Amino acid sequence: MMSHQPGLFARGSAWVVALYLLLPISIILPVSMTDQRFLSLPREALSLQHYVTVFGSPEWLASIWQSFQIAVVSTAIAVVAGTLCAIGCWRLASRATNLVRALMLLPIIIPSIVYAVGLYRYFAGLDLLDRFMGVVLAHGVTGIPYVVITVSTALAAFDPRLEQAARGMGASLMQTLRWVILPRITPGILSGAIFAFIHSWDELVIVLFIASRDVFTLPRRIWDGINENLDPAMAAVAVLLVVFTTGLLLLDLALRRRRAE
Amino acid sequence: MSAAGHSLALRGLSKRYGSFTAVADVSLDVGQGEFLTLLGPSGSGKTTILMCIAGFVAPSEGAILLDGQDITPLPPERRDFGMVFQGYALFPHMTVAENVAFPLRVRKMGTAEREAKVRAALDLVQLSAFGERLPRQLSGGQQQRVALARALVFEPALLLLDEPLSALDKKLRAELQDELKALHRRIGRTFVNVTHDQEEALSLSDRVAILNHGKLIQQGAPAELYEAPRTRFVADFLGKSNFLAGTVQEVFAGGFAIGAGATRVVTASAELPPLGSQALLSLRPEKMALLAEGETAENTVTGSIASWSYLGAGYALNVATPDFGTLRITLPSWNAPIAPREGLPVRLGWSATASVPVLDDEP
Amino acid sequence: MMRRQDVGWWLLILPAFLLMTAFYVAPIAQVLAISFTEPTPGLGNYERLFTNESVQRVIITTLRICVITTTISLLLGYVLSYRIALASPAAQRWWILAVLVPLWISVLVRAFAWVTLLRRQGLVNETLMSTGLITEPLQLVWNEFGIVVGMVHYMVPYAVLPMLASMREIDPRLLAAARGLGAGRITIFAKIFLPLSLPGLLAAGVLVFIFTLGFYITPALLGGGKTLMVAEWIGLQILDLLRWGLGTMMATVLVVAILVTLAIFSRLVDMKRVFGGGGA
């Protein structure tokens, strides 16, 4: 084998960077299991008391449940709208659809703070401030780009002649969608759904502006926690979040691998 | 299946993409039960024409008639044409039987009837045992036959084939050519085929339409096109040909003679050009013979072997001549009159009917 | 031109288009509009760009932090991508996971982790003090240093993805061929690998820079209110000071800066590299 290998220095520094990425995140695990009442490493023994605190707290549980509901509904909006849009753009493939696709990417390009400020004013007029529906709409719309990107990627590998073949044999647009296109791009749609879900689940900036009391999501509660009282229960919540996100990511990787086979 | 052939007609069909003309004013008739092949190099517009017939491409001008009815505005799903796509376009997530059942399913046909039709279609292409397999578990030839079964199962008015054999290796291609031809005979439907492979076109079709740069150059039965090409392009694209250029020296009943340098060549032709004009003759390599001492022919030319190669069934000689450059000639190897060797002087002979006047459409 | 048989496909695009127009474009357009109309119609808010010292200070701080963050993120990201691109397929999978997991973990969680580590009574200071290296805790967070540490941590994965994609397009046989021709490791890197990976580096630079410009959470949590970047400053104007005109003016400037950056670099970089397969 003549394959080129990085030198010792390059290998070593790559490890350092990887540790920089991963260590700070992993440090919250021992911190969350501390036996102390303040943020620190465990002194005498490992303890699950802070997890008990979180699961015994109606506020934390209510926020988790609310975040979950918002994420599910907004993911549904993003997946339906994003998937159909990606399919339409893929099939039409014109200058106009390129513009549409660029429009769909705006929420990734434009900083959330700008959108949040705009929405604060806009939703006041529509009476959507501090409403479940308001947050769902905001998260759904900003989740569309993730779905458009993953579905477009899946469609790029889709043979357009399959669509032609179906139409040529008499299938209507709906029949072609249901029986030919959607079954082939399901993994891409699921990937998009996972990312749209994580997006809503973690989203804070918009929520800071358009929600205050009735809608109090998990990120919002964490934000208050970090700003007000840094206690080990925060670390427990953080660990739960990391586990949850990593689980979703592993699910996505497994789906991709299955698609590759 | 009933022999319900339909006729198709293209009237002044054109397709332009911006300033690029893919198809220019093509008119063509396909008779009931006929096997027509659109033949041409890539970029000749043949696939665009097929896509217009199928309804995937809207023509810029002209009309498509099925049994005299204008179908130009119909979307593809309303045309009821069967189509075999290049690379087959089998649905990879459906079994063979599901693929074949697809056109019936979209027509909401009842389960029992559907199953019977699928079985009959798979029988027709000898794949009854493969219904539960996925397309990727089949060989290329089998996939091709599934595509055929799927295109025929709903008894379409017309079967369209887009380079149906191009994905197969040479030997399999020959086998499937025979099968396709037999299938056409058996079901008596109208087939429109597109290919760039001239051998396939000649062996399969009742009629061939030759296209180049979006224009229809010549159409006719395969033998007619091969024996009497009208232009240089047709002669060159169908098989191999030598071209003899010269000045018309003499015109007589049923033919004329051209001269180039010291050589004179006669040809049989119904159309007679004016004296002194430039003319081009096409001459197939297999229509020449090596003349022995004292043997004569209507046309003779002397030269020497510049190079040669052995091709199994025959020899191919490149003979350098003083007036026509290098001429290619093929001889059956089993009774070749000479042992070829470079520099060997030879005399070539051929009949007046072997040299065919053609229009010089390619410089 | 819209053909009749395409109508169905356009209908598929419609829901997303309507949602996006009504609930994304409209609010943002409103931001732009407010910047010209409040408190009085005209360009008054934009005059502040040239006259108001606090406005200028926040812009300069933001640009400084962005440039530093982008530079460090590219450097670290390049080192990581280089290692990943040349790893065996099996090892690549683990390395990529090491990049993707931080990418998708909540930015709040990560900021929280950095606070835990870097604050006065944090793990870093405690460790350093217990080993006797320092006697007074270092000021590691709630300043510009803390912001940069947290932002780089957030941005490295974004830098890796486009760089890795472009490095993977490099034909490994080129490197083998160069070696066969007698080139050393450093020559191969400098003359072959680096030039071929440049498009990815540029794309990563654009991506990281525009993401950093409008970043809110990390600077807000790790800057401790003392070092203000543009996004936090906008939030402050709107939520606390109710200066809508000034806040939306800065928001408009931010959007324009990002779009201009993208427009300039879209001539140099294939935007698909920046935003993945479905890019514009």
Task: Describe the 3D structure.
The complex is a heterotrimer of chains A (261), B (363) and C (280). In chain A, 79% of the residues lie in helices and 0% in strands. By secondary structure, chain A is mainly alpha-helical. Chain A has one domain: Orthogonal Bundle (MetI-like fold). The model of chain A has no long low-confidence stretch (mean pLDDT 90). Chain B folds into 2 domains: 8-236, P-loop containing nucleotide triphosphate hydrolases (Rossmann fold), CATH 3.40.50.300; 240-358, Beta Barrel (OB fold (Dihydrolipoamide Acetyltransferase, E2P)). Chain B is elongated, with a radius of gyration of 25 Å. Chain C has 13 helices and no strands. Chain C is globular and about 70 Å long. The mean pLDDT of chain C is 88. Chains in contact: A-B, A-C.
Shape of chain B: elongated
Mean pLDDT of chain B: 91
Average pLDDT of chain C works out at 88
- Give the SSE string of chain C: HHHHHHHHHHHHH
- Residue stretches of chain C low in confidence (pLDDT < 50, at least 5 long) are none
CATH class wording of the largest domain in chain B: Alpha Beta
Shape of chain C: globular
Q: Could you give a quick summary of the protein structure above?
A:
The complex is a heterotrimer of chains A (261), B (363) and C (280). Chain B is an alpha+beta fold. Chain B has 8 helices and 20 strands.
What are the main properties of this structure?
heterotrimer, A: 261 residues, mainly alpha, MetI-like fold, 11 helices, globular, B: 363 residues, alpha+beta, Rossmann fold, OB fold (Dihydrolipoamide Acetyltransferase, E2P), 2 domains, 6-stranded mixed β-sheet, 5-stranded antiparallel β-sheet, 8 helices, 23% helix, 36% strand, elongated
